[in-house]
Amino acid sequence: MPISTTSALHDEYAADYDRQVQAYNCHVGDVLFGLCYEYTQPGNVLLDAGIGSGLSAWLFAKAGLEIFGMDFSPVMLDICRAKGFTAGLKEQDIQQVPWPYSSGSFDLVVCCGVLHFIGDIENIFYEAKRVLRDGGIFAFTTRVALAQEYSQPDTIQQSVGGFEIFSHSPAYLENLLSKFAFKQLKAQKCYVGDDIFLLWVVHKEQR
Hints:
The protein has one domain (3-204): Vaccinia Virus protein VP39 (Rossmann fold, 3-Layer(aba) Sandwich), CATH 3.40.50. The protein has a 7-stranded mixed β-sheet, with helices on both faces. The protein has a two-stranded antiparallel ribbon with strand order 6-7. By secondary structure, the chain is α/β, with parallel strands linked by helices. The longest helix has 12 residues, at 3-14. Helix 1 (3-14) packs across helix 5. Helices cover 32% and strands 32% of the residues.
């Protein structure tokens, strides 16, 4: 599906997104923040890759972090900007590389509720590593399927509600962490409705 088409689909529900998340009782962003909290301190600089309306970033802002974000949905960015807690927002699809930030610019990169919309996520790991400072934190979520559903492929693709949804196997993700010199700090499974998501907190090793 072309990126512009996918962006338009996200634009369509942007105005109602925050309400839908609450109605669905989805608090993955809150859980991810909790997993990251011990690795943060006021004044840290955070990039939210796929910030959307800002739901996953606002607790970090409340904890005193400086928040930057990028998203391919201009409507979502307008909603996020209106909340007034970000230092800078850019319209950018995270699959388009390089990201518009200098190397070593951030203490944390967060990518919450995004990677299950993307089949090939290797470039995202590469860019997260590039823009992080040594020792920086990369926190992200992935959708997981039952182990027997993977068989051969590392990624399972399904069509749900007009969106292409991807489940990445834990083994595939662990290989990416190794390839890009990330060390796992925490991993936590979390149910969202009938779906299972895996929340990861890793850090960029010094080499």
